[in-house]
Amino acid sequence: MLPNQPQAPYEPVSKWTEWGISVLNGIFGDYLRERQNGLAIPMAFYHQNRPLPLTTAGLQQAHVTLSNKLCVLLHGLGCHEGVWTFRDPEQRTQGLSYGTLLQQELGYTPFYLRYNTGLPVADNGKDVAALLDELLTGYPADVTEIVLIGHSMGGLVLRSACHYGAQHQYEWVKKVKQVFYLGTPHEGADLEKLGHMTTAVLHAVPNPITRLIGTILNRRSQGIKDLRLGNPLVEEWPEVFPSASGDNNGQVIPWLASANHYLIVGTLTADLRHPVALLFGDALVRLPRVHHHPVPEGEPRPASNHYVKIFPKLHHMSLARHPKVYQQIKQWCTNESRGDNPCHGYRYSNSEG
Amino acid sequence: MSRLSIQQLRGLKDLIQDAVAAGVNITEETHQAIARQPYALLEKIPIIAIPAHVIENVQQTVTSGVYQTIRAVNQVSGALANQVLDRLEEKENAQRSSSHGCRTDTNDNSD
Fold first, then answer.
1. In principle, which of A74, A80, B2, B95 could form an S-S bond with A22, CB 3.0–4.6 Å?
2. What HEC string does A98-137 produce?
3. Domain segments of chain A as ranges
4. How far B7 CA lies from chain A's nearest CA (Å)?
C-alpha cells in the first residue's frame, strides 16, 4: 500500500435536496424511521454523494489507495458529510476536508459517515460500532490505526460507538488511537436545555394555546433531546436511575480508555473570558467547565488522556471546516505517531487545567 | 441540483400528509378546548344552560364537519399523489428495463 499516492478528489456535496433531507432527519428523524418514510437516511459511509459498499471491490473502487490507517468522520445534527468541505483561502483549493488533507499529508484513508441525526444518540452509536466492524471485515488491508473525528453530535455518537464497540469486543476498538471532538456538547447543549425548559413551562401553563405550542415543540427528534445532557448512554438511564427521568445524577460516562481524546472548542469572541464567550461558547456549545474552574468533587470527570484546544472567534460550524482546526488535528496526529504528548492545549484535568 | 428519488418523493408526500393530519388533530383539539370555555361559564346560569348546551352541540358538529372535510381532502390528495408517483415509478422502471434490454442486445450482437 502506498498511502501518499494522490487520491481521487473529494466531491463536495452542496445539493440543497441533500441538505433539506438531512435537516428533516435532524428534526424528525426518529419519526421518519418509525413511519418507514422514504426520507429517513439509512446509515452508511458515503463517497461522492453515494453510499459506499463495504465490500473489498466497493472499497477499492472508491479509494485508489487503501492505507493501513483509517480516519472516520461523523457530522453533527441536521448535517451530512458535506459539512466537512471547505475551500483553502490561501491556496484557493476547493473541495478540501480534514479527511482529504489527512489522506494527502499523513496517509489516512478517510471515510465519511452519513446518518439519521434525529435518532437517539445511543442507537446511532450502536449502528456506527457495527458498521465499523463491517468496514474492517471488508477492508482489504491490515488496519493498524483508526482516528475518529466527530463534529458536534457526531462526537457523542463516537463516544457511544466506542462504548458499544468495547462491549461487543469489536476488533476496531483496539485500533482507535485518537478521538477528536469538534464542538461536541459533552456537558449538554444550552439551546436544547432551553428548549426542554420551554416545553415544560408551556405544558404547565393551563392554556390550550401554550399547550399547543408546547406539543409542537416537543415533536423534535430524540436526537435533539439527547443533546440536552450530552450523555450518549441516555437509553440506559431508566435502568441505572429508575427515578431520575433524565438527570445526570453524577453518572460517569465511559470514555474509551485506550485512546487519547482531543476536545476542540470555539468561542464567539477573541477574549475567552468575555461574557459572550463564557455564556455562548461557539454559539451552540459552551466551553468545557474545567476551563473556568475545576470539576467539583463527585461530578463526572473526564479521564486524564484528554486534551483541549480552544479556538477564539471560531463559531460552531467553522470547527468542522477550518484550516486552523485541521492544522491542530494534524499536529496532534503527528505527535501521536511520534509518541509525543500534544504541545498545544492543556490536559483536561485538575492538576494541569 | 439533485433530484429526489421516487422513494424520497413518496416520503415527502407521506410527511406532508402526516403533518396536515397531525396539524388538523391538534388544531381541532385546541379549538374545541377554547370554544368550550364560554359554554362552561354559560352552563352555570340555569336559565340559559339548556340552550347553551344545544348551541354548543351545533357548533361542535359544524366545527367537526369542517375538520373532517380537511382530513378527507388530505386523504384524497394523498391517494392522488400516490397514483401519480406509481405512474412515475412504472415509467422509470420501464425506462430502466428498456435501457437494460438495449445493452443486452448489443452484447448479443457482439457475441
1. A80
2. HHHHHHHHHCEEEEEEECCCCCCHHHHHHHHHHHHHHHHH
3. 16-189+246-347
4. 5
ipTM field: 0.76
Least CB–CB distance from A209: residue in B1, B3, B30: B30
* Range A49-64 average pLDDT: 87
Domain of residue B100, residue span? 6-15+23-110
Nearest residue, CB atoms, A37 vs list B3, B4, B15 = B15
CB contact under 8 A, A38 and B9: yes
Q: Is the pTM of this model over 0.90?
A: no
The per-residue b/e assignment along A306-339, b for 16 or more CB within 10 angstroms, e otherwise, is bbbbbbeebbbbbbbbbbebbebbebbbebbeee
A-side interface with B, Cβ within 8 Å?
15-18, 21, 24, 28, 32, 35, 37-40, 49, 208-209, 211-212, 215-216
Q: Closest chain B residue to A214 measured between Cα atoms?
A: B26
Work out the widest C-alpha separation in chain B, in whole angstroms.
96
Give the nearest chain B residue to A16 (CA atoms): B1
Summarize pLDDT for B44-70 with one digit per residue, the tens. Answer: 998 899 999 999 999 999 999 999 999
According to CATH, the topology of domain A16-189+246-347 is Rossmann fold (3.40.50)
pLDDT tens readout for residues A237-258:
444 333 333 444 445 567 898 8
Number of domains in chain B: 1
